[in-house]
Amino acid sequence: MMSQGMTLPAIARIIELQHQLAALTQERDHLAAQLAAHQHRLHPGNAEPGHAGQDGTQHGVQDGPHDTAP
User: Fold this and answer.
1) Torsion angle of alpha carbons 3, 4, 7, 13, nearest 10°?
2) CA distance 29 to 11
3) In terms of DSSP H, where are the helices of the chain?
4) Which residues are paired to 59 by β-bridges?
5) Total-model pTM
6) E-strand stretches of 1-70
7) Are the CB atoms for 58 and 50 separated by under 8 Å?
8) Residue 14 Cα distances to 6, 11, 61, angstroms
């Protein structure tokens, strides 16, 4: 990275941000597991990802970004 003109503080910042990202990813995974367990308690049998609920909606399925470019 230094050969590409990055300073030591910039490299240290990148490493710090990578550690923060890892911690946030771990926290997200933990919270997702808690949410799934909570949903399972509220709606037994309907909490699996992609499982259609009684109202026809998809429980546990997140809508990602849609590419509208032709």
Assistant:
1) -120
2) 27
3) 8-42
4) 51
5) 0.54
6) 51-52, 58-59
7) yes
8) 10, 5, 32
